[in-house]
Amino acid sequence: QIHAIMKFTAALLCIQAASAKVYFKETFADKERWTTSVMNDKKDSDMGEWALTPGKWHADFSDLALQTTEDARFYGISAPLDSPFTNKDKDLVIQYTVKHEQKMECGGAYIKLLGGGKEFPASTFGGDTPYAVMFGPDICGSTRRTHTIFNYPPKDDNLLVSKDIKCETDQLSHLYTLHVKADNTFEVLIDNKSVRAGSLEDEFPFLEPRQIKDPAVSKPSDWVDERKIPDPSDVKPDGYDDIPPSIPDPSASKPDDWDDEDDGEWEAPVISNPEYKGEWKPAMIDNPEYKGEWVHPMVDNPAYSPDPELHYRCDGCTHVGFELWQVSSGTSFDDIIITDDIKEAQAFAEETFFKRVEGEKKMFEDEQEKEREERERERKEREAKEKAEKDEEEEHDEL
After folding, report:
1. Interval 297-335: pLDDT, tens
2. How far apart are CA 175 and CA 170, in angstroms?
3. What is the distance, to the nearest Å, from the Cα of residue 187 to the centroid of all Cα atoms in its chain?
4. Which spans in the chain are helix H?
5. Buried-most residue among 28, 147, 209, 289 (CB within 10 A)?
6. DSSP 8-state code for residue 141
7. Phi-psi region of 113 (alpha: psi -120 to 50; beta: other; left: phi over 0)
8. How far are the Cα atoms of 118, 205, 208 from residue 214, in angstroms, in the given order?
């Protein structure tokens, strides 16, 4: 019986493995399947050049990535999936790595999953091209977030996650993963650590609210919601308004050399009156008529309609692409995978990102130390030169 159970379990695992599918995988050994674009409202000179490079710091010089190379340019590039992806009743996983070598000040680094099939406008792909999913980091000034946006046909709109998701801002590679699950939940991971997870219905404005304020009810006109009222028994003291806010300084005296004829009549400087207590106001007491804050009763929203397929964001997705604006270039993209199984994405990350992350970090730190040493050397040379020039001037003056 135990043997039979083991055989059944093994068979089930094989079925699950067989059902998992990878629709796109890219490590940028070349750019053969990628098409660069000139966006519809742009000129060739507006578009930046893409390059394949290991970058300034890396674990393996032969491991190339796709990098932006020109400042203040738009960038467009796309590639077809290996096969169309429809994720009805399936998970959807988008994963890739991003490295900002340039200390990003303002620019996008997000990836898009799109439909279109044979009609996809690869040569003009840009911001006006309809997409299914947009995911990844976007940095500009104090705005630093991981975009997570879904197109939702019932609203004919692209819907952003309700609360911003953080992104990484340093100069090293980071792994970004979006996992949309068939149970209508989602999770965003950075470097395989969860940074946001929840219900698609709760975290995105796909649907109308379940409940609304009852339009047939309004706050009663006699509702008392003032917690405090002036004490009717409190009376302003006699002579209160006769106290001036400022008085002549009693400690001041006319200077001995003051001449009334030349200087005019002497007046003591004015100071705040310590007896003045401001405009009189009666004391406040608890309002005996207070009923508490009025709460508008809620009712079921007749416009609310549940959608059991909120996860179903790809209905024939056929392409993946980057369409970006970058003030400063130098962002690298690598290790892209589109799949319906998070385990496939995690295994791919182990083969790529996690294999090189420590080596890249060490090279970066070594480069930073070299730059620090070079700055220190230049500082000492500059100070020595300034001292020599000063000494020479002093010798000349003595002569």
Report:
1. 999 999 999 999 999 999 999 999 999 999 999 999 999
2. 13
3. 16
4. 2-19, 200-203, 260-263, 342-351, 353-398
5. 147
6. T
7. beta
8. 50, 21, 15
